[in-house]
């Protein structure tokens, strides 16, 4: 029987990226539809290239001009050096030629940097997805002028496979969790209602379909929340079928260990009196015996019995109010009958 801790968890995307423009320009193309699954490197937006292509050509022309001027300055410097060695040119004039050539070299370096920036800006006209994920609502339309300092992103992408489920458990379980996680990954089961997912198209009159997903604990917070005396954990779920959605509330069951040879009964079989808890045990002669039991814990709709029962005994699960010790019973349908 698994030993588990129950909690309420919230699903959250492992990565959330706001897509923004790195240059100012007019939006020409949107290459996806809102809500699409996109892959890393997939093109998403295209901005108008023409102003940046013109800027790149202008930068290239300035670099070409600088290179020509530097070539001429270098030739003049060599001639001045020759004249200086022969004593024909004054030292001050030679130093002027050397300084002019050095200044042109610095100007060329600066203009080359501007040309590199122009080429880089041209690449920014195509915006690609930085990760695998699902797109949200679009905040722009074709023809809009987008800017680097816009308050809203163009679109937000959430990575939903894999996905996190964040939950908190009482801090008294921290040592048990840490010890159990040393030997194996701790398994977490998340359950809930699929029709509670955002964007579900299920008929509200239709019965709810339950979701069930399994993951492993991958994060234990480094501090206990002193206001709630709880410790935060995160479990990672593969979420291949996208049953878990960011923002969804789920019931979480954290499995710490497995209890071997546990004695379990349906919880509805356990009755309570002033003397304690008991069950009706059916003996071989089909009469019932009232047996005092000690319940160790409840797990879902079953109870783990610490004392009072042995494996394989037959017990009454319905109709206990009609029974008394020694009454003879027969099984009809699902309800015990006295005779």
Explained architecture:
This protein folds into 3 domains: 2-13 and 159-258, Efflux pump adaptor protein, beta barrel domain (Elongation Factor Tu (Ef-tu), domain 3), CATH 2.40.30.170; 49-124, Orthogonal Bundle (Helix Hairpins); 263-338, conserved putative lor/sdh protein from methanococcus maripaludis s2 fold. Strand 17 (276-282) and strand 18 form a beta hairpin. The model is unreliable at 195-208 and 333-339 (pLDDT under 50). The protein is elongated. The chain is of the alpha+beta class. Helix 1 packs antiparallel against helix 2 (91-123). The chain is built from 3 helices and 23 strands. Strands 1-10-13-12-11-14 form a 6-stranded antiparallel beta barrel. It has a 4-stranded antiparallel sheet with strand order 2-9-7-4, with no helix packed on it.
Give the helix/strand layout:
Blueprint lengths: L1 E12 L2 E4 L5 E6 L6 E2 L4 E5 L2 H36 L5 H33 L2 E3 L4 E3 L9 E2 L8 E4 L4 E8 L3 H10 L3 E7 L16 E11 L9 E8 L11 E10 L4 E4 L4 E3 L2 E7 L5 E5 L1 E6 L2 E6 L6 E2 L13 E4 L2 E4 L1
Antiparallel strand pairs: 1-10, 1-14, 2-9, 3-5, 3-8, 4-7, 5-6, 7-9, 10-13, 11-12, 11-14, 12-13, 15-20, 16-17, 17-18, 17-21, 19-20, 22-23
Helix pairs in contact: 1-2
């Amino acid at each position: 029987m698994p030993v588990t801790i129950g909690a309420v968890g919230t699903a959250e995307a492992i990565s959330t990226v706001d897509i923004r423009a790195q240059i100012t320009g007019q939006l020409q193309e949107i290459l996806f539809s809102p809500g699409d699954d996109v892959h890393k490197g997939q093109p998403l937006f295209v901005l108008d290239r023409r102003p940046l292509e013109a800027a790149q050509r202008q930068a290239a022309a300035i670099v070409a001009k600088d290179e020509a001027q530097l070539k001429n300055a270098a030739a003049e410097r060599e001639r001045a050096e020759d004249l200086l060695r022969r004593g024909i040119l004054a030292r001050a004039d030679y130093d002027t030629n050397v300084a002019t050539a050095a200044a042109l070299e610095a100007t060329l370096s600066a203009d080359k940097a501007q040309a590199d920036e122009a080429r880089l800006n041209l690449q920014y006209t195509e915006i690609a997805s930085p990760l695998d994920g699902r797109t949200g609502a679009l905040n722009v339309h074709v023809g809009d002028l987008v800017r680097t300092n816009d308050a809203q992103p163009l679109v937000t992408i959430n990575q939903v496979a894999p996905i996190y489920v964040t939950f908190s458990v009482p801090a008294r379980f921290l040592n048990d969790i840490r010890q159990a996680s040393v030997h194996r990954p701790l398994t977490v089961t998340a359950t809930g209602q699929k029709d509670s997912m955002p964007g579900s198209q299920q008929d509200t009159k239709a019965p709810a379909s339950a979701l069930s997903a399994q993951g492993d604990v991958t994060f234990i917070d480094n501090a206990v929340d002193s206001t709630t005396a709880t410790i935060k954990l995160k479990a990672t779920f593969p979420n291949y079928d996208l049953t878990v959605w960011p923002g969804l509330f789920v019931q979480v069951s954290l499995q710490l260990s497995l209890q071997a040879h546990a004695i379990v009964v349906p919880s509805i079989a356990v009755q309570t009196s002033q003397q304690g808890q008991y069950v009706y045990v059916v003996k071989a002669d089909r009469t019932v015996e009232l047996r005092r039991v000690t319940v160790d814990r409840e797990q879902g709709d079953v109870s783990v019995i610490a004392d009072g029962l042995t494996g394989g005994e037959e017990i009454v699960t319905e109709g206990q109010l009609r029974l008394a010790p020694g009454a003879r019973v027969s099984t009809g349908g699902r309800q015990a009958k006295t005779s």
